[in-house]
Amino acid sequence: MRLKAYTPFTSAGIQSAIAYKWNFLGFFFGQIFFTFVMFFLWRAVFRHTPGGLIGGFTFLDMTIYIFVANITGFLADTDASYVVGEEIVQGSISMRLIKPVSFNLSILFTELGQKLIIITLVAIPVFLGLEWFRYSQSGHLEFSIATFTIYLVSVSLSYLVMFFFDVCFGYLAFIFKNLWGINMLKFGVLNFLSGGMVPLGLLPMAIQRALTVLPFASMRYTPVMIYTGKYQGLMILSALGTQILWVLLLYGLSSLIWKLTERHLTIQGG
Amino acid sequence: MIEVHHLIKHFTKIVKEKGVGGSLKSLFAPQKELVRAVDDVSFQVAEGEILGFIGPNGAGKSTVIKMLTGILSPTDGWCRINGYIPQKERKRYVREIGVVFGQRTQLWWDLPLTETYTVLKEIYDIPSAEYKQRLEFLDHVLELGPIMSSPVRTLSLGQRMRADIAASMLHKPRVLFLDEPTIGLDIVVKDSIRRAIREINRTEKTTIILTTHDLNDIEQLCQRIVLIDKGKLVYDGDLDRIRTNFGKIREITFMLEEADQVQRIPFPPHEDLDIKQEGAKIRLRFNTEVCSLPQMLAIILQAVQVKDISVQDVDIEEILRRVYQRQVAL
User: Which N-terminal residues, if any, form the signal peptide (chain A) (predicted)?
Assistant: First the structure.
């Protein structure tokens, strides 16, 4: 693979993200709104919980969790199934096939370009705000460069897990021809199973274990636990290991599906 | 050099009966039907040749092109282009070909045109000096200068098509597949695109396969045509021969002052004459070898008063129809 062949996809991704900035800003404000809804919801729950402790989470823990989980979800989010599905349904996948590039990598690098914009515009202010909040509540600075660096590695892995999972999912368009409905289903299910709604730690132990071994915790929960300091030492290593394993497995799976479909391809239209 | 060897492509299609009931039925017990989109097609194209690949809508042209470009796998048979089997080594193979699907675009929709070319430069690993020279050449034949910095979505269809053709030629492909490159364009743009195709074929010996519905495209660009219908190869050979046999057909449409006046026209008696009447509107198809166009016009205009008159070339569908009726002639 020549990496250089994919860099223009990234720069084109950046440019098209800028060309459609309102689209992205709308999505971002929607996310913020949703985050605050969850915050108020949990606040109500905590107010009516004697002792103010749920599954070992204080209200402060939960607040941090909600905000970190949402920004993490935002960073690791991907449109791959939408892009793949749309290209299959519209038949524009043929325009990618006539180029000497790998199908899923060209999509990955385009999306990375869009991510770059998101990170600079959104993630930095959000994390500054978060740290300021933590500082105002606890009275001392909890930010550590080491933890944050590990968090960034983990988020990147989360993104790759999400991406290759989503690419596989997008190939379902070959079967279903239209993905909108099951995409909504996938979004809801993933949001819950990856810890976007409720910390996985609050779920029964057996389910928790299953979600940690399966790719779901790797999609979001792992980096959140790292950022909030709930994972330490060996725990971090094993969680990162699980993430890497899932990236490789799902990459392999998406390549395999691609190899198979390449042979049985039906391009719609024209 | 392109070899197509007994190429076959079958699709299974789900047949849906009418209405909601039919939809429900196909949801639970889908009825499948086999479509023979391409049915045993073989032909060869020599290096540097421009081949006109024609047939009516749904004949299987695009399906053949998709198999030749490696997008689709044949059910049976094979094709080999410059020694490559497209389905086997897609990434290496597509480096040597250029493809334009007239109904789609390979340009980056949201970005200025130049950006698409920059992306392509990196994808094909074109050295900067060569790239610059190439762009100058393409700008010269396709007049891209004024649109280079416009976002692609703002281009007109003609501009977009020229830009798309340039994009497919940036890496000096040895084989070029043009699937309806002039669809929906006006005469001036069609003309400049044809000139560009000829120029590139002449200077670089590019092998070109061209599909089109426009007989003028074929006449001005191709020495040879392959004609397919319902997935089957109907004709493979000289354009001249088909033109002598079928190209002399013209169609005249005219409006009479009164419908029954048509009986007053002394049409020359010949089997190769086809008159259709809808009220006062008459459509006449005839062979110009039997009666030349000026002659025929004179016959009509002397006999009756017409309100309006127009002359058309026959389209490919008409030629195809005639090929069928007189298959022995080929």
Answer: none
Per-domain boundaries in chain A: 3-262
CATH fold for domain B45-243: Rossmann fold (3.40.50)
Residues facing residue B310 across a β-bridge: B253
CA distance A24 to chain B (A): 15
ipTM for the complex shown? 0.70
Determine the number of helices (DSSP H) and then strands (DSSP E) in chain A: 14, 0
Nearest to B73 among A94, A263, A270 (CB): A263
From residue B6, how far is each of B2, B42, B62, B72, B227 by CA, in Å? 13, 5, 16, 15, 15
Nearest-Cα distance to chain A for B94, in Å, is 6
Give the predicted TM-score (pTM) of the model.
Answer: 0.76
CATH of B248-325, one of 3.60.15.10, 3.30.70.250, 3.10.450.50, 3.40.50.2300: 3.30.70.250
Whether B120 shows a pLDDT value over 80: the answer reads: yes
| C-beta of residue B315 within 8 angstroms of C-beta of residue B213 | yes
* Beta-carbon contacts below 8 Å between A and B: 83
Percent residues over pLDDT 70 in chain B: 92
Whether the Cβ atoms of residue A4 and residue B122 lie closer than 8 Å to each other: yes
